Amino acid sequence: MNTLRTKVAVLAFSAALAVGGCASSGGGRAGALIPGDGVLHVVLLKLKSPGDAPEAEKDARESLAPMMRRFTAGRAFDLGRPEVVGDYDIAFVMEFDRVSDYQRYLDSGAHRAILARWKPRVASLRAVDVIPFDAR
Questions:
Q1: Pair 64, 94: CB distance under 8 Å
Q2: Which among 55, 57, 94 is positioned nearest to 74, based on CA atoms?
Q3: Which member of 14, 23, 80, 85 has the lowest number of beta carbons within 10 Å of its beta carbon?
Q4: Full domain range(s) for residue 60
Q5: Can you give 51-88 as a three-state secondary structure string?
Q6: d(CA 45, CA 128)
Q7: What are phi and psi of 37, to 5 degrees?
Q8: DSSP reduced 3-state for 47
């Protein structure tokens, strides 16, 4: 799958989760514009060993889920639609009440620790941040 097609598919996937626009997490700029909104953080992981997906889900659920409103993990689902991204082993969809909650999560020791534990086991990672239009 080419890079442009992958980017378009990831954005379409995010928009399907919540009719929203992408927001950068860089320096909390989105939070400065809309301080009371919710945030969806979508992470797609391709693991070096796909069989590790249940362990990744358990680790994330136990260490990260308590910091957010909602946590969902799952695998790719293929109905044969070429525009849908399916080149990942596990997806995490995380929902936060406010940008400040999301920033606390990003800065937390638990988040840094899980990144350190899983980085050697991850072949690729893609993340998309979404602020739903209805959060304004």
A1: yes
A2: 57
A3: 80
A4: 3-135
A5: HHHHHHHHHHHHHCHHHCCEEEEECCCCCCCCCCCCCC
A6: 12
A7: -85, 170
A8: strand
- CB 112: neighbour CB atoms within 10 A? 11
Task: State the total domains in the chain.
Answer: 1
CB 10 within 8 A of CB 22: no
Between residues 109 and 8, which one has the greater pLDDT? 109
CATH number for position 7: 3.30.70.100
Global pTM value: 0.72
Cβ atoms of residues 31 and 100 within 8 Å:
yes
- Per-residue pLDDT tens over the stretch 9-39: 444 344 333 333 333 333 333 334 444 579 9
Residue carrying the six token digits 């889900």: 57
Lowest mean pLDDT among 13-22, 30-39, 45-54, 55-64: 13-22
Tens of pLDDT along 99-134? 999 999 999 999 999 999 999 999 999 999 999 887
Q: Which residues contact 101 (CB under 8 A, 6 or more apart)?
A: 39, 67, 68, 69
